[in-house]
Amino acid sequence: MAKYTVANVGDLQPGERIVVELEGRSVGVFNVDGEFFALLDQCPHAGAALCSFGKVFGKSEAVAPDAEITYERSRSIRCPWHQWEFDIRTGESFYDPANARVRKYNVEVVEGCPEDVIDLEAQGIQKGPHILEGYHVSVEEDMVVVDTSRVRRGTQSRRATRVTQLPSTGARP
Ligand code: FES
Q: Does the keyword Iron-sulfur apply (predicted)?
């Protein structure tokens, strides 16, 4: 398991998603009003490509029948096959939260640009600290990094295969 750079922050605007290939699995990465979330591109009901073709929509909530209703846009995704709906932040099904859940991945935003990401161990480079005379390097863009580990450990970073940026609606199979 490892961490993969999947996009620059500026390439994934609020309400948008991308689908990438990580370790042979298709994973959807979503920007929900500036927060990033990643889900396996597979519906737990019958296996539809949920992230690739699901419709993203908002979520309305109230703590009681007469309480104020809050609305959050781009918070949920609806499966293109049988219309099950899931919370993008948690992967939980609104229909059956206890038993139906899409696998969720950890996502973090790391300062830097993709060219900075090097797998030191794979390249046989010794870890620092190394002291040398250097020049100032500026950070031009931030990166969105998906962690495929169930338990977070290690610091390996790699580039993901970016598949495509998808529209918010899709066709039924
Ligand atoms: S395959 Fe997604 S709801 Fe049936």
A: yes
